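Here comes an entry:

___
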Amino acid sequence: MFDHTFKNIDDALRQEAGCTTELDYTEQASWILFLKYLDDLERERSVKAELEDKIYNPIIDKKHQWSVWAVPKKKDGSPDRDKAMTGDDLVEYVNDTLFPYLRGFKQRAGSPDTIEYKIGEIFSEIKPKFNSGYTLRDVLEATDQLRFGSQAEKHELSELYEVKIKRMGNAGRNGGEYYTPRPLIRTMIKVIKPKIGETIYDGAVGSAGFLCEAFAYMRPNAKGTKDLETLQKRTFSGVEKKSLAYVIAIMNMILHGIEAPSIVHDNSLARSLSDIQPKDQKDIILANPPFGGSERREIQQNFPIRSGETAYLFLQHFIKMLKPGGRAAVVVKSTFLSNGDATALRKEFLNSCNLHSILDCPKGTFLGTGEKTSVLFFEKGSKTKRIWYYQLDPGRSLGKTNALTDADFDEFIRMQSSFDTSKRSWLVDVSGIDSQTFDLWAKNPNAPEPLAPLAPEELVTALDDASNKFSEALTSIALGGGNVAFNNRLLGDIIRLEYGKPLSQENRTDLAGIPAYGANGVLCWSTKKLRDGPTIIVGRKGSAGEVNFVDTPFWATDVTFFVEHDPNETDLRYLYYLLKLMNLPRLAKGVKPGINRNEVYALCVPIPQSLEQQRLIVSALDGAFEKIEAATALAQEQLSLLKDLRQSVLASVLFSQDHSSKEAGHE
């Protein structure tokens, strides 16, 4: 119903110079979506009040309501573009009038639990990034087509918003900071089994995935308005430190049906453990705290076991926030299980909680990170006596197009309830754990033994087979130039090498956004783009002459050139292959090697007379290089087999039974 509208919003945002990354797109879409939701909510409340013969006092005053400034309408309901602001007038109104008005709700609201306070908090934490009022007008009119009235409409919008969050999370190296895979979250919830009346907390809330999924799990069990009110007002709470994640969490929970989310914009770790009282504690904790972060020394003072690792501080926070008898499922880096810097924490953890299950997740569970992760399932109030381990193996490599699914966790959920043992699961008695290190890393005792090494004769056969495949791969690489008519031309007549520009420190980011190219490839990430792709980046200084093809928006730093050309005359991929062939590094001169672009312009190169011929050559080259990659893999397989053969021959000669018996004098 709304997927086409979301696509139109995304397409418009991508035309906005002030928005350059998936994070920007999600942030700017979020505040606009929120105001449209608020307008629909106000309309719904107004109708309800009228039916009950009551007076409704709107939250937003008349002149700042959506229908006045965002999308004014004619009597027939169509947009009134004569009344609608656009261009610089619209940008000026949003920046200088609307946002200051909305930020003021934080001071005017009576309580942090009200939607008025949330409005003030949200608009205090984000900035409008639209440079073009025409682009903003397109986004507003597309957003106006969305409706938040029925549960079905909210459900679809929540799913579409989740897709945006997932895309944003996958775009960054710190993907888990914004997005925990939903199948993993649902699995954790199914093991914990929250019930209506229990309180659920996440102190590193991110995009609120845990709270939204817990709400979806519990809502079907609501038996009446009292249960629904409990879910809405007395069940879910969270804390988020980062501004963007806080805004996304609020919007995500609203779209999932929680009208006034109890999310606080703060640092959970800034609160001393001694300040947490029984009234603050929760029945259930579901969380995925940030990997590899660090906190200032004064924050570490709040914890009895001090650490520079944020995740270790969060684990102490969660234990303290849990009621006696409370249940938790927390994602950690697998290194927590054995690292020496976590020894004291593991000892305290095992003595104060029953760590009954550990789920070992495969590499690639979190896109954008290379971290191995585990999920700790525990209850507070009794010592750990034994731990059930489960090694998740989906039977495939994980990636963006091949992520974990709910079905991948079915066996784990089924076996966890009774702690069954299998080739993937096993039990460990805590009495057998090293009492000095409290190392919880446990090797699977039920895993099949490694296969015995092959005999030399078997390896020779395997090597012959690999060699035949390699030969077949090589003979399949044939370009076939055909009847192509070439003209010899100077490169300077075909391309322009434009200078890159310095990238300021304030425009650098740790999150994967716009790739910023140095002479030898991607140097870092940028919050701004220099140009839209595609183009070719050529190293100018340092790794001078290196050539990289770029098909996305990019920033070329001041040690590079980027190529501009006439796409009606030459194919960019053909130029890329041509520049690779030219061996440009040979032109580099000086102590810090550099290239003079005039020397590049003076090179004479063969150019097919038509674009069609250029593209045919590119297609043939692409196919050939793909086959070369396959042949390379086969060659590496042969090398591996040769190494195995060397070891196998040594073993067969030096450690054969007959030889060793004679040498040692044994019968």
User: Anything to note?
Assistant: DSSP finds 22 helices and 19 strands in the chain.
